[in-house]
Amino acid sequence: MSSILSYFQQPRGHFWQWAEEGRFVEWYNGNTIGYREELIRVLRAVAEQGLPPLAPVLLLLAACADTAPAAPGQAPVLDGLLQDLPPGNDDPKPQVLRRCLVQAVGFLVVVRGLPPTLRTGEPKLHLFREVFVGQAPQIQANLASNILDLWDSGRLDTKLVQSANQLTRRTVLQELDCLAQAFHRFPTTEQLALRLRTGLDQLPASLPTPEPPAVPDQPLSLFEQLAQDQRTTGLVNLAQHLVAALHVPMHTHGASDHPLGGVADITNRGNFDRLLLSELAHDDLSLTARLVNNEALYLRREEPPRPQARPRVVLLDTTLRLWGTPRVFGLAAALAWAYHAQLPRTRAALTAYSLGGQASTPLDLDSFEGVVQALGCLDPALHCGPALAALGLDQPAAAGTDYLLITDAEAAQQPALSQRLAAAQPGLRYLLTVSRAGALELFEYQNNHRTLLSTSRYDLDELLTARRPRRTVPALPPLVGPAFLKCVPAPLYFPTVSLRLSGRNALFHPRLGGLAVTDTRRVLYWPERSTGARELLPTIEAGTYYFGSDAETEAYILVSGPGLLRVYCFSLRKGSAELIDLADELDEPEQVIKVAFKDNCYYVRRGGSTLLVDCQQRAVLGRRDAAFPYHHPVGLLPEFGSFKRFINNGYSVFHRISNISVNGAGELLVDGYALRLKNQSLPTTHQLQFLSRIDSDSNPSPRAKATAVDVAPAEASNASLVRRFAWPDGSEAVVDTRGLLHLRSADASVPELTVLLVIGQPTAAWAANGIVTGSSYFTGHHPAQQLAPSNFYQQYLQRFTAPLV
């Protein structure tokens, strides 16, 4: 009760007062500042980080409504406030109070300069969170919601409008300092607008020019070379499908040359179905004894002869009917035939020719340049009959070579070419026909008869325009920066920072744990309730997220945006991520309309077609005709109550650090919180914790204050490293937005340290030599190298702070 009264009661002599029984708040001269409903909405928005003093909240409300001073010199209400306050024993110096007032009013001017879209509606709530984040709250976060509920009920309105204690200059300084700190962070409207729009204090620098990829040790195969070139990607995609479907018969001698299917020998090893019938004449005991002692006799079947390797020649028709799509279809079939000729079991010498109207030209199907050149071989003749006749296939000498002719299906039925085919039967063994509709037929000539061996049909539009999804692995941690960031996986579990759960940024499964994308677009994974988070991805693209999981070991996130379509596949046990880039599957003006996840596959409805992506196979299974499961849920939507209980351990995190120093006792101070050993019953059970003045009995004053400087140029590309503090001896403290504080001592014998910026619960720390300490929630249950907090504090933290005192 005392907390809510002290927070909401109007002090005597302040610039604001309640009006109409607390329904709105106004300046003491009678002008309206804001209504109660608007004030409760703003306070609830910042409640999760604790409630700041009420006076700066009201001033910021006035600035958003254009009722605050328009310039530092136009603040008569606030100037009169300072002049009318009675003097006190602990009053700050007048120049200090005046400078704080000028800076606070300057920040109100910065806010007034924002466009209305950033200081009204929902963006206004984001503005309040950014202004007061990281500042010491007047009401802690664990009490804020209850106090706001009690005030909103109206049961205490009669007491709230009563005047409280007399306002002091010390209280005014503390209230105005909240806005003065914000002015130091955002001295201009442009910087504040950039922060509100992007979450960044400055735009990232341009990326350095990437180094050319290293030359692989093993040379690429022909198909791999063709797949890397945009001109031949569709060709090799079709050829690979033909390789899997095309069956090339093996050549053997005549059936009477070898006793195929007969018995070759008798042996004492074999299967029971090959026992000699005479063995069954023995009684059961005798037969068993013969089988056990390997005395029983078996038949050994005749092995088929090895196929005879005969030279192969591919004849590719390049006349008029093969122009266009059939030309690519025929060349893909020739590549598939050449691939089979290079297999170890059927290896044979292969040559290729293009058949024009009158002559043949050699082709090179073994090199990338030769395949590209083959695509340009065209002849305007109506058919290739004269060129086929010129090869002399009607002579008996041609019978020792397997000739294959690839031509158009309709051309093979024309009388002019069919007569040439009949004359070439002594040497021509195979005929392969293709059509524009995607039909492929393979014939074999034997004994003056043509036999159909196989037929198949392909969707040429899909295969020839198919684009393989690009699969990459996110970049490794940078080689520069704090030592903690170079460890994979991270030595400590991360605290939860900048996360507002919704149906669009989280996935929760009782067996797998929780997965979420934070406001800063980090992908965090909580494997169990008793530990913090693992960072699966330091940053993910902005867009709409669709979650999925195989409910065993993997989770998936599909990211959709303008010109963007990607699937991230996360191995939860390994902590690794694999990216499938599907941007080439989006054709303007097609846009993603709807997404569903079913049977480990994403169904992406775009325009009039459906894209089907198999997450386990990392492959596109269909691009047009897949049936979209409209009545199936989009993904695994979390139960937010269960998820919040799963990841909530009762702690808060420093969001914005403004002061770092070391006090007379050699303790590290972060915004007024001292990193100390919280005493327990035994020294071995002490806990490392950030304690405020309220939570601690002794509070030596700061002595060695660090100066805020720019982040080192080598680390500037890492957006998480936002501020660096330096001491005169060269020691540094680097603030990491992920809830980390990296410490580097000027003494090279002291390893780099990383401390989690956790408030309200025991924290954890790590040294660059691999030692961890602190709460098992952040270190894990069984770390490889661990020290008791008291020992770690003495051996590492005090060695860092001692030279600074």
Automatic annotation (TrEMBL):
Residues 30-194, 723-802 form the MoxR-vWA-beta-propeller ternary system domain. This is Uncharacterized protein. It comes from Hymenobacter setariae. The lineage of its organism: Bacteria, Pseudomonadati, Bacteroidota, Cytophagia, Cytophagales.
